[in-house]
Amino acid sequence: MQTIQIYNSLTNKKEALIPIKEGYIGMYVCGPTVYSNVHMGNVRSFMSFDMIYRYFLHLGYKVRYVRNITDAGHLTDDDAEDKISTKARLEKLEPMEIVQKYTIDFHQILQEFNFLPPSIEPTATGHIMEQIKAIETIIDHGLAYEINGSVYFDVLKYNETENYGILSKRKIEDTIENTRILEGQSDKKNAQDFALWKKAEPEHIQRWDSPWGTGFPGWHLECTVMSTKYLGKEFDIHGGGMDLKFPHHECEIAQAQACNHINPVKYWMHGNMLTLNGKKMSKSTGNNILPRELLSGENDNITKAYTPSVVRFFMMQAHYRSVLDFSNDAILAAEKGYNRLMESLKLLKQLKSGPNSTFKVSDWKQKCYDAMNDDFNTPILIAHLFEAAKFINLIQDEKEFLNSEDLTDFKATIHLFINDVLGLDNKSKIDHNSNKLDGVVEMLIQLRKEARDDGNWALSDQIRNDLSELGIHLKDGKDGTSFSIK
RNA sequence: GGCGUCGUGGCCGAGUGGCUAGGCUGGGCUCUGCAAAAGCUCCUACAGCGGUUCGAAUCCGCUCGACGCCUCCA
Question: Which of A123, A187, A338, A484 has the most beta carbons within 10 angstroms of its beta carbon?
Fold first, then answer.
């Protein structure tokens, strides 16, 4: 099996991936908060982990991939003023109605972008009992306290024996200094303590009964509880966006340690941000672009629509740990490159083997693996795929050759990395009329050939130009004319 | 203010002590009736200033700039 070097945010260096149980990988990724549409920034993050998941599967690991849906807490009623009014039930916004709407939307988007579904997709609201139990455990262990219907994690006490800041590399003194000012009238003993359970104020429309009264769980708790439940007290990989590192992931470590006395995660992975106009995409600031807008072209930041595969390709051309700036020019360039790659891939099917091989497929193949094994370096992988595209074209022109064994391997490897690992979907749309269309184009090519043989360039060019306007491009080669439909 | 990441050719984006990816764009050539496509080729960069080193885009220091986190966030 290949050895993967994986960048661990906990140690800030690349380490060899050695699963806790050989052959198995437990991976938890923080999912979306389903109170609004996911934007492209969210999609990028999930896509990085989709690629990683795909690669693990390809290597033959048995992976349990857990990605949660955050559907509890945080939600307040805009109409708080009306809370006592006798509004009819149906007129009020039902929290689960919102959750349902955006969960469906989220799934549809991911499907459009050819995501593999995770093994388990648990929801926070489905694990309220477990969260309450976890809080009780933490209280029992003396690391949380209840005040006024809320329960807080005692960060200072925890820090006496453990290291709060182990992941984010923050010193607790700095945390104290910088939070004190912000939190004036809180119930908390210390400003840096975080909520495990929040008392529900009247405007909170999601609420559950608990030993501490009516309320809702703190945001950080769900991930601790669900990862532990499905992956165990100690598991291999925890992923998420860079922006979750602090406080969310730091708190997760603290909670898990407080519950189970064990460092829960072996490898922490953080995907970097997708920026728009040089700034992080964000729901709150409105600086974002929605997946559907990208697919329909309806956004002021873009001049045209893009296919899901082009978008995916664009994302994969950057390393998951680098900031990627989204712009029309950048994705337009990616689209051109992608199309070129796909054109050469179409030739791949019809490629004929030669008597011998003029380049070493095995070397090239290993370079592809090396790229992926080096912390999932998809940009390098893609560079190698472009190299392959060049070879495909040269083989087609009979300037390079592969024997049948190498050719089979070459085809399989390209298919593997393009489709299985990168998740690029080059299937052409199933069109029952495509055969008829092909026939018509072939007929026109034949007519044009006759015109060309007669030296009737005017007619010949007219056929070519008219077809071109319809998106059908003719290419005159040595062995006759071929065409591609865009 | 604190902590952290980063600054690569016209653009996007890898690399991270010597062998200097890839894509897009632009120029040239081959092929071609002309195109297109394809191939070949040219434009050789690492914010600035110091330092370490035989050698630095890569390590160290400083300066400038950008971004992220510190509040819900992928």
Answer: A338
